[in-house]
Write a structure and sequence with these properties.
two-stranded antiparallel sheet, globular, alpha/beta, 2 domains, about 500 residues, 17 strands
Amino acid sequence: MTLIVLSLMMFAAIPASAANCESLAALALPGTSITLVETRTDGTFTPPGAAALTGLPVFCRVAATLKPSSDSDIKIEVWLPAENWNGKYQAVGNGGWAGSIVYAALAEGIKRGYATSSTDTGHVGGTAKDMLGHPEKLIDYSYRAIHEMTVTAKAMTQAFYGNDPRLSYFVGCSAGGRQAMLEAQRFAGDFDGIIAGAPSLNTTPMYTAARMWIAHAALKDPDAYIPRTKYAMIHQAAVNACDTIDGLRDGLIDDPRLCHFDPNVLLCSDADNASCLTAPQVEAARKILTPVKHPRTGQELVPGLEPGSELGWGVQAGGPEPYAVVHEGLKYVVYQDPNWDWRTFNFETDLIKLEHLEDPANATSPDLSAFAARGGKLLMYHGWADQQVVPRTTINYYETVLEKMGGAANTSDWLRLFMAPGMAHCRGGDGPNEFDTLTALEQWVENGAAPNEIVASHVTADSVDRTRPLCPYPQVARYTGAGGSDSAANFVCRLP
């Protein structure tokens, strides 16, 4: 009888809850204060300061505060479908410095039948200010909030449905990708499947400080500043230089590592104008595309942004202040000085001073043996045109995992990385950038079907104008030569 029940749970949606939603208000969980319980029946939810989310099923909404330390104040929300629960749990990640519940991701989760949860990671507002003088809050933000939320959400799920989730998934990109990797590295038992997109892996102070490179290159000297109006011109020049390296003219740089674009081709021959770069601007563009190296050893600390990312340079080079995620990390976490002046940073001396400091948010451990041993599946992805988190950092990490874990032959059944040509940070860009990683992960975890390709789409004016397969790294998509080059059906994944 037990086997029959388990089989039914594996393949049938659970029709209704075992408990009344409002009864969860009395649920006693360690370090947890339940602050709101309500049944939502109107199909909509309007997050604070955002547009209404619509088309929602009836669900039980639970809000709670978690206090794993005396200085913790972690807000979470757990959304539980009242009917047709798929028997699974999904946690969703944050971006930047977090500081808010990700309601849109919660909505997508319950639409797919998941019990789902999100957290503000222990502070309010997308800033690092609350970390100043509060090391416990830094730990909450770094990894503890996600883990504590997961434990609590699973307990609420069990109380509501009378069953534990049969499978658990984590979905995150950017800071959420870092959260995903820390879950795999630190809490191998939390999730059966993890999606880590564009993970901001390395947060050691020296690495974070090295990311000031772009601000110093483009913002410190007013003459070096590149107006946003010139980004499209630079981008087109890079694409013109490198588009056909893969044998196909399609407006995409397939692998920017093979591209040797020199911004000097855009040097103004006369007065500055919209179609050229001044000498200081050329130098700034070169530095944006150049790795930052250790001043003593010459070791690469941070790869440069890739050719093809130019349309997004405004995030880090648009000014007047540096990229806020990095700038605040240095002010409030590394130097612990709200008045720290980024212009005073010295790449020759300050990087060395910071090289032995650590950050609890760092997610670079290549030892994923515990996660692999329990049967977990990890799907990573990154856009080659990412303007915020340099894509080579993900490739570098992936390769250190292969080295640690015994090579691709020992990892391909639980770890895969997909690189997306022309895709910006998490989404957007010239390349196909809309794809369903969750379905791919579900098929992998639940049916043993490892993803050999993921079809991505590019949408213009609500219409799909190009599809392309994303391939497991190091494979790349190659045109077969037959049919239109805007259709994924006419490409195959193969080693370059």
